[in-house]
Amino acid sequence: MIPALMPNYARIDLAFERGEGAYLFGSDGRRYLDFAAGIAVTALGHCHPHLVTKLKDQIDKVWHVSNLYRVPQQEELAQRLVDATFADTVFFCNSGAEANECGIKMIRRYHHDAGQPERNRLITIEGAFHGRTLATISAGGQSKYLEGFSPRVDGFDQVAWGNLNELRAAIGPHTAGIIVEPVQGEGGIRPASLEYLRQLRAIADEFGLLLMFDEIQCGVGRTGKLFAYEWAGIAPDVMAVAKGIGGGFPVGATLATERAAKGMKPGTHGTTFGGNPLAMTAANAVLDVLLEPGFLDGVDRIGRLLWRELLDLQARHPTVIQEVRGAGLMLGLKCGGVTNTDLQTAARAEGLITVTAGDNVVRLLPPLIIGEDHVAEAIASLDRAAAAITPPLQ
Ligand SMILES: *Cc1c(COP(=O)(O)O)cnc(C)c1O
User: Fold this and answer.
1) Residue 286 and residue 301 in one domain
2) Helix or strand or coil: residue 247?
3) Is there a domain that residue 143 lies in?
4) Which domain holds residue 309?
5) Residue 312, Cβ neighbours under 10 Å: how many?
C-alpha cells in the first residue's frame, strides 16, 4: 500500500528535533554536526539568533499580502541585492526551479522583444542540475530526472562540460543564451575554471547571447564571495539564486541587468507566494549577517582550512577518497573503492551529516558560520568513517 506520504524520496530513517548553530539533535538522542545544511540551505546554521529575532518580529505583523501591493521588505531586499551585485533588478519567488524558470522566460522574452523570436534555445552544460519542473529537467538534461516524463520541453541544447569548441559549434540562429552553474552541485561538485567562465562571457557577447548563471547552490557566500561569478571578474546577464538566501525559509530570486530584463513588463510573469513579507524578512536577515564586514573573508579562510585538512584526510585514506574538489565551503569528496552512500552512512554513524551528489561524490556543505573546532570535529569523524569502510587489500 502506498504510504500516506508520497514515496518519491529514499529517506534516511532519522528525524531531527532541534537545531542549534552547526548542530542538529536527532530523535535518536544523538547530536550531529551538520555539514549538509539541508542542501546548502541553512547558510547561517540552525536558529541563528538574528534570524530568529527578525522572523519572530515579522510573524506578529503580517505574513502575506500578494504581489498586488507594495511589499517594502521586497523593495529593500531587491535594492540590497542590486547594490551588492551586477544586477539592476530582481524578481522574487519561492524556489530554485522557479528562479531558473523566470530566467529562462526572461531570455526568450528578450529576443522576442528584440524582433528575433526564433532565438529561443538555451545552451546547457552536461552534468547540470537546474531543478525538477518540466522546463528545468529538460535544461538539466539528465536522464535519471527525465525518465517517464516525456515529452521533453523543447529549447535546450546540451554540450560537454568545459568544452568551448563544442559550445561554439552548438550556437546557431536559434540560440538565445547559455545557462551554467559556476560550480556544479548535484552533478558532483565540479567547479568551472575561471577562464571557462570568462570565455563563456566572451562567446555570449560575440554572438549576442544572454549569459545566465545558476548560483542556486554556489551563491550566497558559499564560495567565500557573495556570488561565485565574482571570482572570475566577469558577470552574467541573468542569475538564479535560492537555497541559502532564505537561511532555511523558501526564497528564490532571479537577478538581471536592465537590458536582460527589459521585456519583463507588468503581466509577463508572476507568483502568488513569492516575495512574501516573511520570506523577505528571512532573506534580509541573512544578508545582514553575510554583509557584515569580514564575514565572507571568514568563510574564505575556513574554507581553505577545511580544504587543506581534507587533502590530508585523502592522503590518509587514498582507497576511500580519490579526490577533493570544490570551492570555499562547497567541497566534494570523490569516492573510490566505496560508494558515496557508504561514506555518507559511515560519517553519520560518527556524528557527521553530509549529502551525496552525482559522480560518486560526498558533498560537504556546512553552514557558513563554522569555526576551526567544527572543522577539526568533522575531520575526526571522517577519519573514523573512512577507516571503518576502507576496502580490504586485494
Ligand atoms: C537545488 C538546485 C536547483 C533547484 O532548486 P529547488 O529549490 O529545488 O527548485 C537548481 N539549480 C541548482 C544549481 C540547485 O542546486
Assistant:
1) no
2) strand
3) yes
4) 16-34+294-389
5) 12
pLDDT tens digits for range 353-366: 999 999 999 999 99
C-beta 183 within 6 A of ligand 1: no
Query: 95 CB less than 6 Å from ligand 1?
Result: yes
- Pair 243, 350 in one domain: no
- Pairing label, strands 121-125, 175-180: parallel
| Helix, strand, or coil (residue 151) | coil
52 C-alpha vs ligand 1 centroid, how far in Å? 25
Per-residue pLDDT, 392:
83
pTM: 0.98
Tell me which DSSP letter residue 236 carries. Answer: -
> Ligand 1 centre from 129 Cα, in Å?
7
Number of structural domains the chain divides into? 2
Is residue 220 domain-shared with residue 333, that is, in the same domain? Answer: no
C-beta 129 within 6 A of ligand 1:
yes
Band of pLDDT at residue 277, cut at 50, 70 and 90: very high
Q: What is the CATH number of the domain that holds 307?
A: 3.90.1150.10
Cell matching residue 375:
572543522
Do 323 and 347 lie in one domain? The reply is yes
Question: Probe ligand 1: pick from 101, 122, 130, max atoms within 8 Å of CB?
Answer: 130
Ligand 1 site, residue 189, Cβ cutoff 6 A: no
DSSP H stretches of helix in the chain: 37-40, 49-59, 72-84, 96-113, 134-140, 143-146, 164-170, 194-207, 277-290, 295-316, 340-349, 372-389
235 and 341 within one domain: no
Give the atom of ligand 1 at the shortest distance from the alpha carbon of 242.
Answer: 7
- Where among 290, 310, 337 does a domain terminate? 290
Residue (of 209, 280, 230) closest to 65 by Cα position: 280
Please tell me the distance from the alpha carbon of residue 94 to that of residue 181, in angstroms, as a whole number: 19
